[in-house]
Amino acid sequence: MAVVFYHYAFRGFAGGDRTTLAYPLLESIAKYGFMGVELFFMISGFVILMTAANGSLRKFVVSRIARLYPAFWVCCSLTFLAILLIGAPHFSATFVQYLVNMTMLNGFVRVASIDGVYWSLFVEIQFYAMVSLVLMLGLIGRVQALLLGWLAATIVLAFLPMPLPMLRLLLIADYAPYFIAGAVCYLVWSSGASAARWGMLAACLGMALRDALGGLPLFEQRYDTRMNRGAVVAIIMSYFAVMAMVALRWTGPLARRRWLLAGALTYPLYLLHQNIGYMIFNLAGPVLDPHLLFWGTLSLMLLASWLVHVHVERRLSGPLMHACDEVVGEGLDVLGSMRRRR
Fold first, then answer.
1. Hey, is 103 helix, strand or coil?
2. What's the domain count of the chain?
3. Fewest beta carbons within 10 Å, which of 42, 52, 57, 225?
4. Does the record bear DNA-binding in its keywords (predicted)?
5. Is residue 184 included in any domain, yes or no?
């Protein structure tokens, strides 16, 4: 929800290229919502390592496809349809662009996304590729050492005088502290805490704070605003505190079923809300009260997300997982036979 408020109450208007609807009532708080993606990456580090912990590359790949694609296909299609109907003049997309977007790999072939939020999916896919490589090499049992090496490389890169952009891209250096922290929290959750693990979390926190504070001047310049450094530090530290509570199994009420449902809605909501919301703002802004438009659009996106979760994710994930299991299994068998021939 933090990212949704960031887009609706700050980014769309402040960027000057999405919508003319301003919402000053929440602007001063909503502008910090972009940091919600970092929490998502921490949670991903935890959940993805949990998914991969059994050491099965086949199950990991199938689970990721079944989890991501059904909702994405529907949300991407709805966004494309909205662009065709009400997108002009701020938004446009071609049919070929839409088809490439449907693969979720368009960022790797330099085809523009039809919704800006897809950038984080490319980062996620990079992380999945790293985990898949670990599984392929049979190194999941040494994951703590691998995480430590990844963290060390990220720290070294941060202080090198030369940028080395390709290496930073391969190591996901901009977001590595969050993925690593989430993965370490899973290790604490699954097999207990240790001095090494707490030390890794402390190093991740230090890098996360360094990167976040270092990026604020550019953010302030781009959006002509001022950010409270103390608030940024508090937000990041709260992420680490919450994940540490999860790792230590101190979650209590957070584990209740209603929170699980809220978590399930975040993915379709994230995929749907941004550009469709902006298009609704642009279409109805001249005739509707801004408060009614803002909260009405938010409610509509929540309803649409619930419908996608119930009627798409719940219904299609199982059949897709079954179908993909056979295809992925055959593909891995072919790769295995090729490796044996070598």
1. coil
2. 2
3. 225
4. no
5. yes
